[in-house]
Amino acid sequence: MTINPIYFLILIPALLAWFAQARVRKVYEINEAKPNRQQVNGLDAARRLLAFHYLKDVSVETVPGKLSDHYDPASKTMRLSNEVATSRSITSLGIVAHEVGHAVQDAEGYHFMRLRTSMANRISVAAQWSSFVFLGGILFRIPVLMILAGVFMFAMLLFTLVTLPVERDASKRALKSLEQTGLVAGDEAKGVRQVLNSAAFTYLASLGQRLASFLFFAVVILLARGVPQL
Fold first, then answer.
1. Cα diameter, the chain
2. Which position among 59, 95, 98, 205 has the lowest Cβ density within 10 Å, counted as fewest Cβ atoms?
3. Radius of gyration (Cα) for the chain, nearest Å?
4. How open is the CA angle 140-212-150, to the nearest 5 degrees?
5. How far apart are the C-alpha atoms of 63 and 76, rounded to whole Å?
6. pLDDT-derived band of residue 187, with 50, 70 and 90 as boundaries?
7. For residues 19 and 50, which has the higher predicted lDDT (pLDDT)?
8. 217 belongs to a structural domain
9. End-to-end alpha-carbon separation of the chain, Å?
């Protein structure tokens, strides 16, 4: 029994994504068990960091869910999961500072942040029809749907590519802000860096998945249209 090599385009990135998520969970758990010396919880840290950057127009809310933390540029709102908001851990500081980094990017008009926001608004609309388009293109071999599916997948690939510098820049700002405000010191910075780097690895793995999925789709379409295998 032989396996068609094109299936490795799905298998290998999937394994990489699984490894990235497992690594994040492990790093988060290790640093979740380490309380910060300042004994500051995530919510208070967010307010102190926002004040440090003079971001008075950014509000902070708590939301349910695990690792549901994010910054919403449309409403200028930073949303923290209940777990992160109440925790006094190194992990919590890293997550909060990262989201504040996005708020600073938004305030400064960071070009990649603006591009990602613009792309997200458009892609979210197309995502509502993506499943129908993809299945219609693959199963029924409708040329127009094949093209639309390919365009959408390529757009998602570009979106993920643009996300990388946004997340990397936010992480750099995060560690710098924590050190400047005195919220972390000494070996605490090492723990924060581990949290930020492990999260960044998941975005890199996501890019690999998007690229592999697009290439897999392209190969399947070529085969469906009668292009012989190499």
1. 65
2. 59
3. 21
4. 40
5. 15
6. confident
7. 50
8. yes
9. 19
Q: Are 97 and 38 within 8 A, CB to CB?
A: no
**The tokens of 113 are what?**
């942040």
Active-site annotation holds for 167: no
Query: How far apart, in Å, are the Cα atoms of 218 and each of 57, 86, 114, 126, 189?
Result: 45, 46, 30, 19, 44
pLDDT band at 183 (very low <50, low <70, confident <90, very high): very high
Q: How many domains does the chain have?
A: 1
pLDDT digits (tens, 9 = 90+) for 156-172: 889 999 999 999 999 99
In a domain, 64, yes or no: no
Task: Determine the Cα–Cα distance for residues 84 and 113; give it in Å rounded to an integer.
Answer: 24
Burial 28-65 (b: 16+ CB within 10 A, else e): bebbbeeebebebbbbbbbbbbbeebebeebebebeee
Residue 84 maps to a domain: no
Q: What is the pTM of this model?
A: 0.84
Domain that includes residue 212, residue range: 5-35+90-101+108-224
Would residue 55 count as lying in a domain?
Answer: no
